[in-house]
């Protein structure tokens, strides 16, 4: 309606016309002035536009007869504010402006209806008498400034008033067109009798038109209306004027609300909804601080100067505002100097919605404020968000006590929820669980779904903290379901965030990522920046766990930026912790250290001891990675001291675990064991299975370093059992990695290889590339120990590729170190030197002294192999110096071993003996039995070289004893080798032979080619079985040479057959065929038909694999003929089935079916029912391929009957599936439906859920063919439910019909047009 007030070009200057049209259109608001009685003559308030008096309104019928004072009293309870506007009617132009302004204000207010906007009661207008009154409801609490001065109001109560104001502004700004209030300030905010804030005084208000969608941004999205000069002058605020004489800034209108005015209004005089938001920032300031804007400034010029320079208060430094940092952030967004990017009311409202608040309560006792349970709960939450645990706990307890005493069950349960959160933050999980249980019971009893969901969420987190992840997931899922059902987005997002944490703990990274993304989307949509930042932090952890470091870094950076913006210091510090972890993973130690230092500084500043301790923990890890063990120990000790002092047992255990790792790196194994045992005890007491398992893994590695292999194995197996029980795949894989190391140390290479392979498979499955690379590195070490150098090289190469791709310099350098060792063993010394040099460069660049020394060790051995003794000695000496400097005793001893070898190679026996003796002393002192035995072996070699055979024998015997005692077979065999050489030198030939035989037996058993190379027996099959192809070929060729020389045809054939198999596995097909045919010739000479047939079959299988079907058919037929001739039925069946496969590959289905009939007869005669059913099934498939449906059906039915007779339910179900598919092809969907239904029932009875889903897929097709869309929908739903429950992916069939069912729900008319075709 306000637009009607704008004069049109050429319109007559009519004083009343436009305003009269407006007012005449509002008859329901017009009040006869005689009905208004104003007992008080003195105004309650005065302003630039008039005065406010209190009045009452009498009924119309009382006006005509008059009313006495006594009856008037009955109307005085209903008080109204009479706003009497003043105008100088002698000035015609001013009178026009005044009357239009009056009508404008009334027309705007008449269209408003909102609990936070003042309600228009009516108006009085007699322009000839100069009467222009606006009648509003009187609010006795006055304006917000007066209200705040009237009592004691806590922060949550003040926030409630702010939310009311913003809600009202949001309403105005979301109108079409939007309404700009134009004069927002505390004086124009009233507080009603319900203690809610309402916006009043619309004398400066006007409408605005919106910009197009493409122009919208962060800000208001509106532009001022187009006005003529006169109207623009009325609706604009006065502009700044500069006094040229005094150089002062002034305003021409002394009544203008300067203190709340936005800088752009001072510049161009135009009010807009963005300038309203500037004023909202100041209203927040007023409500929380109780102070006017720029209260300390007295002149307009001073205020104007501050505003245009953007010199505004530091909100976070204020005692009250510092308690609600999210509000500080929003105020800063209101005070952005550029209006276009200033926050809008809707966004402000969304973000403010999450701040703790409650409607003010004026309850007092003896002049002291009485806080309600609800207010105490909100105060507790406010303190909790500040990490002020002590104050939070006391207020929650206070709230619970008051609520219990007043039987306010809702408030009591909410207070218990808050207490549970406090306990959870203090790692008091038992207390947290109990408190959340009590809260959930109360919420459920009183039917409060929201509260019940919140309590379930808290319970879920408590379970998760105690590694009861299955219960945790169930609780959080229930919470999420309730929140989603009741439309509580915040609760749903928080539950998703917790589910993400639970999934991450269970290594379900894909599900975790999805949960965090959903949580982030919801939190962003509802404007909860703190929650969005938490979700980003969770995503960052997931990306880091999956080695997606770039994405992780980006997520943590965004979280850091968001938390910084909303003033969440804890969140900022946590994001820095996350960044530190990412930098650590990428070996960016300087950046990591800086991030952890900043995090520690923030945590310390805000008094967050837990966070400060964890930041110190992170720093300790960085120092440890750089071999700064003293600094690492100090940081972790400080972390442990803080955690212990504040009673954070979980943090204390974590710090002890870190100390254990540091001690282990420094070879202080007893200290390491003590620290980790203490950590394990704490974890166990807290029911923290993950922590307990982690501590056991650490103990296992410590025991392994001390050669206590049985204890190490036991500890790691316990860790593996716990991790398996709680479904923590990552933990399972890590335990397997540890077991692999223990098995390797004991020369149990088969077990070690299996452990590392299982670990690698798990790491790959859960998307943990970093773990997979570590397992590959372990496999590389195993292959190297077993002389499987090709496989070792491949494993190290793969590990290096993964580490390089992930930006993990440390891992890449370790893999290069492994490759260097492999190249050296294969005499590829140039490549070995290059690999070790690259590793050395990486280690040196990242400041990893331990790695640098390790690379120097490797270089020393390469130089030694190349007879570069001087360079080798230099490298070993440098390595020894570094190891000694960083307190790595084991490394120093190993470097001395290397030096001893170099001195030995140069015949510097005195220096060599001294180096080995020092190495032996260190290894013995730190409890490294393997190292001590190795040093004794070196001493034995030195003594032997010096012909000190007695001392040599003693040294080798001691080494053998140690190796045998700790179960190190490889070492024991090597010591026996040394003894054999000493015995030989002393002409003790029998003892020498016995020692070497024992050595050969051990080497053969553990697959040590170097030791077994001295044996005459063939090791070819062992090497081939263990994929040591080069060694196998060499051994088999030697064996073949011997057998040929001895004219042993059978064994010559066996060697040739084994060579053929070896070549086949390596895809060396030409050599394979030559070997197989030579074997057949040898067997023929030996007249050994069985072996001839076996080799013919192997040849046929290989030719089949190469698609040489005619040759394969010929070879297998020859083999079959031989087995028939010797009546070997078992091998006849095997050969026949291979031949049937070859027929099928050539589409010779008739021959295939005929052959299968023969085979079935043989199998039936052998009484092998299960095999017979399998052959019948193959026959059925063959008939289907020929289009012989009746014969196929007969085969399937017979197979079903056989399987039923032997009680093979699953096999019977599979035959029913074959029959169902056959019926579909025959366009017999009803029969197909019956078969699939029976098949499903059979699978279900056998507990085969995958089979059930397959049967349901068939049923869906059958139902669709019969247009039974209802049944189809049921089957589809059941299949989806099974897939969801079992974690299986949905089949393409199910996905297709699921979409169809959805489409039919949305468009039922599609049923008539749906067409199906089956093949």
From TrEMBL:
Membrane-spanning residues: none
Pfam families in the cross-refs: PK_Tyr_Ser-Thr, Pkinase, TPR_10, TPR_12
Ranges for domain Protein kinase: 38-355
Gene3D superfamilies noted in UniProt: Tetratricopeptide repeat domain, Transferase(Phosphotransferase) domain 1
Coiled coil feature spans: none
InterPro entries linked: Kinase-like_dom_sf (IPR011009), Prot_kinase_dom (IPR000719), Ser-Thr/Tyr_kinase_cat_dom (IPR001245), Ser/Thr_kinase_AS (IPR008271), TPR-like_helical_dom_sf (IPR011990), TPR_rpt (IPR019734)
TPR repeat residue intervals: 413-446, 493-526, 533-566, 573-606, 693-726, 733-766, 773-806, 853-886, 893-926, 1013-1046
Keyword Repeat recorded: yes
Name this protein carries in UniProt: Protein kinase domain-containing protein
Domain of life: Eukaryota
Organism annotation: Tulasnella calospora MUT 4182
GO MF, one example: protein kinase activity
Entry keyword set: Repeat, TPR repeat
Family annotation (SUPFAM superfamilies): Protein kinase-like (PK-like), TPR-like
